[in-house]
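Sample A.
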Amino acid sequence: QVQLVESGGGLVQAGASLRLSCAASGRFFSSYSMGWFRQAPGKEREFVASIRWITASTRYADSVRGRFTISRDNAKNTVYLQMNSLKPEDTAVYYCAARPKDQLRWDYWGQGTQVTVSS
């Protein structure tokens, strides 16, 4: 069982930066691939970024590539999402997710943290 707690959201102006954190409880954090998703009002949840469990290879949605960076610190059981050059369209609730190794389904989800970008 893995519990995820996000933090770091807030209200910022366009062009600003934020860093989201996701602290994971439980054992074997390094055996989980981690991801960030977001859901804007009236829209479906969408993939933002992921980082693989063993290689730490990363993937990004086209809409955030070059602006967002996902990273992980296995010693701290934490995954981060550094968000730069934020745009109003980045406004959403951001969710952290975890899945064992290379499993396709994301099994564990955090409660979400609100990010609001004003123009």
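Sample B.
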Amino acid sequence: QVQVVESGGGLVQAGESLRLSCKVSGRILHILTMNWHRQAPGKQRELVATISSDDRTNYTEPVKGRFSITRADAKNTVYLQMNSLEPEDTAVYYCSAHIVKYIGTSTYWGQGTQVTVSS
């Protein structure tokens, strides 16, 4: 059984910062790519940031220069530091992890954490 649990969401004002965390636990051998996604009301889920097992990162254009994704492999955890938040960043943020298990690879998702940015 693999669990993916996000934390760190909340309500902030525009210009403030939040740090999201996502911890993976269970019977895993190795975590490959870890990702943050978000889904705003009435919109499709979008990929926000990606970090590979060798720490290569990619970001969607609207968050470049404001968000930073990092990982702590010893803790099976990925972080999303979000600075200079804007009302347009309001969404449910989801973590996903592509994991190597004893019987192959699979992608697992967390339940999401709400981020609300007021103007």
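B remarks: The mean pLDDT is 96. The CA atoms of residues 29 and 104 lie 10 Å apart.
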